[in-house]
Specification:
The protein is an alpha/beta fold. The protein has 3 helices and 6 strands; from the N terminus they run E-E-H-E-H-E-H-E-E. The protein has a domain of about 90 residues: Tetrahydropterin Synthase, Chain A, CATH 3.30.479.
Length: about 140
Amino acid sequence: MKIAKEFNWEMGHRLTLHKGKCKNIHGHSYKMMIEFTGSTVEDGMVLDYYEVKDKIQPIVDELDHAFMVKDDDVEILNFLKHSGSLHVIVDFETTVENITGYFMNKIKEAGLPENITKIKVRILETENTYAEDEIEL
């Protein structure tokens, strides 16, 4: 059995290695669909949607209206610190592929029930582009 829940947030970033427009500071309205596959338990649910929200929403809230910045992007880090802007420092280029992996790792760390056998994360960076990853537990 599979269940899914959608989350949304606004976030800025830039791709320091990009050769086009994405090297500039910009942002997206991200949409993420998370799927959990597993057996139903005695209450008839794979995972209660309230529990999904309790585990995932804090991760989303940390990023909402923040700037995700690579740890060696000194110019932007100095600006963000000086301006007092909300930011999250990561050790990867902030591509949608890497952001998907970031969420996957955070979800695995959140402590899921033993009946969950697979997680799938799909993040839409624009209305027609996305990255997706899934893992068997």
